[in-house]
Amino acid sequence: MADIKIGSLLWKNAQDSLLSLTKGNVASVESIVRNGMESNQQRRANLSSATTTALEHVDVGNKSIQSSLDSSLKLDHDACASMCSFIAPSQRDLWNMRNGHYQKIVEITDNAARCLEQEHTMDEPSFSTPRRRAINFPSGASIEELKTPAFEELLKGFWESKSACKQANSDIKHLYTAYEYHLQGLRDSRVPLTTQY
Predict the structure, then answer these.
(1) Domain span holding position 160
(2) Does any domain span residue 146?
(3) 3-state SS string over the chain?
(4) Is residue 171 classed as helix, strand or coil in its secondary structure?
(5) How much of the chain, in percent, has pLDDT values that exceed 90?
(6) CA separation for the pair 163, 175 (Å, rounded)
(7) If phi over 0 gives left and psi between -120 and 50 gives alpha, with beta otherwise, what is residue 127?
(8) Which residues are 196's β-sheet partners?
(9) Is residue 140 part of a domain?
(10) Total count of domains within the chain
(11) Is 56 helix (H, G, I), strand (E, B) or coil?
């Protein structure tokens, strides 16, 4: 009977110890799970915050790039408009010049064809004796006038014109004018050589 009581007591102590160990293990596992869940939640919050910050930075960068692109596009449009304002008049002038040049070429071509057809047409046989052309030969007097005056005459005319100039005006320029006028009078009396058809 005493052995049964002792065995029952030992069994009860063993159950209490096992129950106590089980409770301690459960509490330890619960604490580990709780700490792990809290750590996961903290990491999830940090990751979410980092993701939000990264997305905000990306959004700001995209807006900055878009603004730069818009500014560059506006500058390109302004430069294009300015360049077109300079090029358009030049294009019109070039087009007008090209048209004028083409018209001049057509006019020159027509004139050249007309000249070749009308003025330089080869003589066609007329089966008639060509008439004699009258030639006006210069007269002997005109040939004599073509000769250079003697040096004495030129010198005499020079001094006469010089003295006349000094009496009229003391300006030396009139000497050259009178001398040129004297020589021009000698040259103008020439009769040109002409022909008549």
Answers:
(1) 136-191
(2) yes
(3) CHHHHHHHHHHHHHHHHHHHHHHHHHHHHHHHHHHHHHHHHHHHHHHHHHHHHHHHHHHHHHHHHHHHHHHHHHHHHHHHHHHHHHHHHHHHHHHHHHHHHHHHHHHHHHHHHHHHHHHCCCCCCCCCCCCCCEEECCCHHHHHHHCCCCHHHHHHHHHHHHHHHHHHCCCCHHHHHHHHHHHHHHHCCCCCCEEEC
(4) coil
(5) 20
(6) 9
(7) left
(8) 134
(9) yes
(10) 1
(11) helix
Comparing CA positions, the residue from 19, 16, 17 lying closest to residue 27 is 19
176 vs 38, which has greater pLDDT? 38
pLDDT band at residue 119, thresholds of 50, 70 and 90? low
**Phi-psi bin for 160: left (phi > 0), alpha (psi -120 to 50), beta?**
alpha
Task: Dump pLDDT digits (tens) for 121-140.
Answer: 555 555 666 666 666 767 77
Rg (CA), the chain: 63
Are the beta carbons of 159 and 134 closer than 8 angstroms?
no
Higher pLDDT, 103 or 116: 103
Please give the distance of CA 169 from its chain centroid, rounded to a whole number: 63
Written as six digits, the tokens of 39 are 């750590």
What digits encode the pLDDT tens for the residues 14-59? Answer: 877 778 788 878 888 888 888 889 989 999 999 999 999 999 999 9
Q: What is the mean pLDDT of residues 157-162?
A: 78
Q: Is residue 127 part of a domain?
A: no
With respect to residue 93, please indicate whether it lies within any of the assigned structural domains.
no
CB neighbour list of residue 175: distance below 8 Å, 6 or more residues apart: 161, 162, 165
